[in-house]
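Journal club prep — side note

Before the paper discussion, L.F. wants everyone to see what a predicted structure for a comparable chain looks like in token form. Sequence:
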Amino acid sequence: MKNLLISAAILLFSGISAQALTVNPYSGVQWKTQHKANFHTHTNNSDGGFNAEYVVDTYKAHHYSILVITDHNLVTYPWTKFSALNPKWKDRNDQKMDILTFPGNEFSRGVHDRNMFFAQIPGDGADIDLAFKTMQDSLSLGIFNHPGRYWKIDKTYTPGEKYSPEWYVDYFKKYNSVVGVEVYNTPYDRYPNDRLLWDEILTRSMPATPVWAYSNDDMHGEKELMGNYNMMLMKNLSVADLKKAMIAGNFYISNEPGKSGKALAPKITGISVHPAQKKIKVSAKNYSSIEWISGIEGNGADRKSRVIATGPEFDFNNFKGNYVRFQIKNDQGVTLSQPFGFQ
């Protein structure tokens, strides 16, 4: 008993305490209705290979209920006026199609490609700060596209240098209109280090500044159709509910290289947090493994995301990190959660 009291006193006066879960992007979400979304899509209004009606018809036929066209430096919207943008195109009525859409633009000049959503503002966004301020002033939202195109794993960055993890974190802190980063770009995963950079960012930003992950087709042609999706956890198919989900991280993401259009990657059916037990429990369908990831291991070009646990439950009684996320795999693809934050 004496030793127990001494140990308790040491813990008390040393300031050691159990980690508290302070960021749970799935708190209070409903799991029954999951809306399949793609936030990075092109037509031949810019450099895509298909006309607009073929693009939207194809995604609708494969059960996407949220789709935005993000042509380079252009706003290909509204769908009801496609023919005004190109006389060879045919108009589409998104409301009759029961698909949620809104204006989008991939700013494609300057230091980094970015997507802007919900504002009908054309332009190339050459000045990155002005572009993000425009998003903020217009109540629109944005994400960083394919950061692995710019960030190099074999380069040693000075903190704050362009494309360093700190450079990204600074923008997320400065502009709350910037809600996330693509970690899967194209079904064939064009920039596989995107997830590693995401973990580098989360290591520096969490829990104060959560950064949500997106998985988008970046569709230009047939080989990019329907392999990536974001499953938005929102009751109503509306812009207001979608904005809330994007800001709060109420969604998970999948990459399916086979591009079946049938969402064959693992499906998350529930996530529960048990504060008394200090556990996070995952319910899912059609999976073979679950890995919990926090931080980075290795050095230089040999760095990789660190797996700290496996299985459907994560016990954070002795966890000392500032975030954890999980990924679920099967033979068709992979599904990623958003990060949970600890303090």
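L.F.'s comment for the group: The first strand starts at residue 21 and ends at 23. Keep this in mind when we get to the figures.
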